[in-house]
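Can anyone check this?
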Amino acid sequence: MKCKKCSSTAVIKLRQHNVSYCEYHFNEYFEKRVEKTIIKYNMCKPEDRILVAVSGGKDSSVLLYVLDKMGYRVDGVFVDMGTVTPPHEELKQLQDLIRGQVYYLDVRDYFLGLTIPEVSKILRRSTCSVCGTARRYILNRYALTAGYNVLAMGHNLDDECAVLLGNVLNWHIGYLSRQKPVLHRTHSGFVKKIKPLVLLTGREIYAYALLNHIPCSKENCPFSKNASSLRYKSGINEVERYHPGTKLRFYTEFVKKSPFEPEKVTIRSCSVCGYPTTEDICAFCRMKARVKNALGK
């Protein structure tokens, strides 16, 4: 198998594009793909201060590395939700590869000293639901208070297609209206959210991480093993196996032609913390109040 660009031995074949690349030209392809995605969807500019939500996994670690390599003003932040062992060694190694900083936050500092599994048990709610609400709140609030105007997430094409398939099959119109590569700032209490890896598959990202020796934790969240998104991902991967390029067409055509517009709602400030919300009290503060009541605090 030869590289399309130089006839050297290829290290990867990309069936969706019908090309093979050597290490050098795959890295070139990957970085240009990220750059084109940023430009195409008007994600960020060189003067922006970007915060990458880092989990320690391949996607977010690669995102932080490649944005730093491209010259953006970028730092990372890891939020310890108490669901997995914090990847301290991987984060330290990642820090050594970039010019920016990798910060560490603990959900216990925001949630009465409790981890997400403990909160989930008290509230009798799914761990994923509690985690999602808390993580979004903490990341957005930290980005604002620390002076960042863009929050970058490591969502890849596989992730987005799985979520998109689930939302289409269940006709979740509200979610479909918000499933975009960029979520623009709609309130002074929100930061702009971007997904620069959204046109790259997990396989491409994993290959880039390996070739560039980017440290990645192998541990997966134990609470994700029964997630419906995994079944949707498996299904669309099977279609992709027989029809290469399906995922890319599915997602890009949806973004281009989606008729769904976000519902017009009145956004106000939470009466407890000031966070943007459609209610008098935001979802995070309501969760905290329920936990306090349950614990008698």
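Reply from J.R.: I decoded it. DSSP finds eleven helices and ten strands in the chain.
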